[in-house]
């Protein structure tokens, strides 16, 4: 995989089925001896080959597992506070979520947790006591893959059948997380990995994930400044502090457009620009007095006047122009994910079961074995 390239500018992408599919795997942390015994020193077992990614909270290396001779990805967390704050909160969240979800086909597999060696402090990256998560290695992240391909070819590397497959893999991962009362909160292209050997998409990076209480009207009180700007749904842009797993589905809608077109569409430069982009492409936000989304009036940034929702005009709905050659079923899925009212937005489970686009006989999704392996 080529070194990670940042897409866009500013904080756009940064933070501020079947029983078989969901069956247990014997190689996940839950069953591994390392989870119960002494932590392995990273350099005793893994040899770093290259640095492949650096995000807000982690540095990721490609490495070789000296025991199995397989490639793995090592993620070292970057402490964002003073050392005496202890284990970074994002890493703790990531670990908690992975322990519950890492046995799913479309969620990156956590193989081990290791620490840097005290004997050779400094060599493993930043001194002793660092924790490294060891993941299965995936050849691509979809942000890099799509950006690089678009630069060379001016289109998406994926045809319509492959887009359907990737969307159904993503929705299966989300259905699984949401059924376990967990929201990802940072679904974006660079957090979607593609294993070309198996033709499978894997959802990754659970540093912002949080549990939610299903009985509290499907909402939790949390910070609205989650989800990278380009993938942030209207309710968060309007300052909602209670929100639901529906935020992940809006992001899935944004991913759908990027997979299909090969470039981001809702790529605002700041929050106001993002809101304007959404209106320009998706259409007018249901009016203040309309019944389509009555809860909108009470959202903090609407109430205090910080965000002014334009009166219903005739917004160009540019997305419809961009998708003029799409089937009705494709449009239905897209508009049902990019639905303003989070209560009306399709759930992952509903989309997987009801979408004619994903389930219809015409141009059906590829099986994983039929998915592209190389992108020339
Ligand atoms: N298992 C893996 N296999 C291959 N590459 C990986 C793997 N995990 C992560 N990467 C690469 O490292 C990058 C950063 O990883 P990750 O998203 O987990 O870290 P992060 O610091 O939380 O990121 P950010 O804040 O940018 O979202 C990914 O975008 C991807 O390019
Ligand atoms: Mg990431």
Overall description:
α4 (160-179) runs antiparallel to α6 (246-261), α4 (160-179) crosses α11 and α6 (246-261) packs across α10 (328-337). The longest helix has 20 residues, at 160-179. The chain contains twelve helices and 13 strands. It is globular. 30% of the residues lie in helices and 15% in strands. The protein has two domains: 8-136, Phosphorylase Kinase, domain 1 (2-Layer Sandwich), CATH 3.30.200; 140-370, Transferase(Phosphotransferase) domain 1 (Transferase(Phosphotransferase), domain 1, Orthogonal Bundle), CATH 1.10.510.10. Mean pLDDT is 84; it is low at 13-35 and 120-124. The two termini are 13 Å apart. With 376 residues, the protein is of the alpha+beta class. It binds adenosine-5'-triphosphate and magnesium ion (MG). The site of adenosine-5'-triphosphate has 24 residues, from β2, β3, β4 and β6.
Short description:
The chain is 30% helix and 15% strand.
Bound ligands: adenosine-5'-triphosphate, magnesium ion
What is the CATH H-level superfamily of the largest domain?
Transferase(Phosphotransferase) domain 1
Give the CA-based shape.
globular
Distance between the termini: 13 Å
Helix coverage percent: 25-40%
Beta percentage is 5-15%
Which labels suit this protein?
single chain, 376 residues, Phosphorylase Kinase, domain 1, Transferase(Phosphotransferase), domain 1, 2 domains, binds adenosine-5'-triphosphate, binds magnesium ion
């Amino acid at each position: 995989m080529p070194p990670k390239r940042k897409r866009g500018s500013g904080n756009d992408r940064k933070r501020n089925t079947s029983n078989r599919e969901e069956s247990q795997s014997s190689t996940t942390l839950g069953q591994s001896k390392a989870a119960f015994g002494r932590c392995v020193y990273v350099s005793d077992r893994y040899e770093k080959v290259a640095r492949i990614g650096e995000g807000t909270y982690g540095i990721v290396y490609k490495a070789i597992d000296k025991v199995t001779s397989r490639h793995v990805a090592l993620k070292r967390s970057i402490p964002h506070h003073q050392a005496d704050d202890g284990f970074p909160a994002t890493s703790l969240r990531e670990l908690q979520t992975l322990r519950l979800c890492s046995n799913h086909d479309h969620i990156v597999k956590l193989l081990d947790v290791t620490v840097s060696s005290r004997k050779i402090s400094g060599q493993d990256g930043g001194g002793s006591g660092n924790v490294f998560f060891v993941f299965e290695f995936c050849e691509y992240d979809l942000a890099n893959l799509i950006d690089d391909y678009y630069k060379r070819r001016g289109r998406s590397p994926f045809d319509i059948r492959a887009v359907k497959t990737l969307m159904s893999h993503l929705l299966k991962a989300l259905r699984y997380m949401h059924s376990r009362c967990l929201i990802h909160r940072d679904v974006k292209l660079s957090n979607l990995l593609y294993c070309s050997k198996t033709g499978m998409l894997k959802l990754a990076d659970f540093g912002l994930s949080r549990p939610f209480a299903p009985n509290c009207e499907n909402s939790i009180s949390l910070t609205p400044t989650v989800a990278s700007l380009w993938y942030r749904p209207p309710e968060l842009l309007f300052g909602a502090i209670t929100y639901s797993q529906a935020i992940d589905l809006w992001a899935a809608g944004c991913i759908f457009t990027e997979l299909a077109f090969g470039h981001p569409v809702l790529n605002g430069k700041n929050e106001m620009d993002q809101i304007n982009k959404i209106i320009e492409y998706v259409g007018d936000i249901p009016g203040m007095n309309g019944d389509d989304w009555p809860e909108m009036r009470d959202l903090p940034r609407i109430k205090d006047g910080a965000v002014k929702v334009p009166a219903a005009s005739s917004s160009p709905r540019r997305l419809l122009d961009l998708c003029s050659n799409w089937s009705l079923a494709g449009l239905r899925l897209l508009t049902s994910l990019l639905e303003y009212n989070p209560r009306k937005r399709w759930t992952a489970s509903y989309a997987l079961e009801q979408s004619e686009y994903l389930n219809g006989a015409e141009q059906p999704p590829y099986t994983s074995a039929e998915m592209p392996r190389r992108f020339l």
